[in-house]
């Protein structure tokens, strides 16, 4: 089940985690792309035509140039300027390390404008319901974001300007999220109910599924119609390609996903395949941690799927074990050749081979000139994947094989102790109810926003 966050903290967490995703490149994640095949949804391709009573033979009067890209817009009288678009676009480019082609920038600019239109509609609808976010609240959230980067607001302002963005763009995004959240809490949440029988049914299903796989999933959802499906799929493939090049999945999810999870970087939390649409479930079952798949057709659009983690339902995960470690390391002087480093590493490996427990680590370190560092309460899952399996297979007192490089030096880890992970328990009934209520609120929120788009007066410049 997805972790449940109190309503009072949900917005601040969404803002901080989302903005971190936008502003920080995550190329170091090393995301791979899976070749999962999209599963076709059994929709009638002619449904839209039937609903609109369109003729079979259409004669078009006039021309529509698909290459004309509108840069700015006026939404119900509120102007979205080219500067607004540029500053928001700069955040995405920064998240990709600045490596975005001119063609991709043009495509991103169009999507950013769409996002700003939705954001404007949300702020306007909140104001129409006498919901306004005070400047002091926005400033307080902005200060938390700056603090999350270990910077003062003034330093963060300077950082944003260096990226081609501005504090005003971040603050507007904060205002939109806070205003929309409050509007949903007033107009939708009070009318969403979950019965005790529904909660009990979820608990029963969880217990029945104990030991089966569940995944922590990230999703980027793009809505489509039969008429524009091909274009939306092309957009999804472009997003995948940018992530392959080192772009941030969370940043793209935040800017482009039309699901309610966009505010938290597309994070669906922990889900079992049975909770996902069939096409997504099939893809997840075929994926490994860190892989992407898509575009995958789902009802109403397409999805890009990212498997962030995997575990067994209601079962203790060894990777949640806490380790007590000692690290012995040696470094190489500047100019050390590969042959010299290999010889020194071999001597180091031979010296630590016979070590008997952590009690000898300090003595041995002093003898061979190695640095010794104590590391307590290290969670296995926080270590590099290559080391996780090795450490899980060690007994207390044993050490890993030497690892490292010429630049980083060579080191070993000695296992001093391990506290095994506790068996996973089912979430409480209150947690399950809160999550189900939130899912239903989010579903109605999408319908709410769709209606706002339908009634909006939008002029493009």
UniProtKB/TrEMBL annotation:
Signal sequence segment: 1-38
Domain PpiC per the UniProt entry, residue ranges: 212-309
Molecular functions (GO terms): peptidyl-prolyl cis-trans isomerase activity
Species whose genome carries this gene: Sphingobium baderi
Keywords: Chaperone, Isomerase, Periplasm, Rotamase, Signal
InterPro entries referenced in this protein's UniProt entry, alphabetically: OMP_Chaperone_SurA, PPIase_dom_sf, PPIase_PpiC, SurA_N, Trigger_fact/SurA_dom_sf
Official protein name in the record: Parvulin-like PPIase
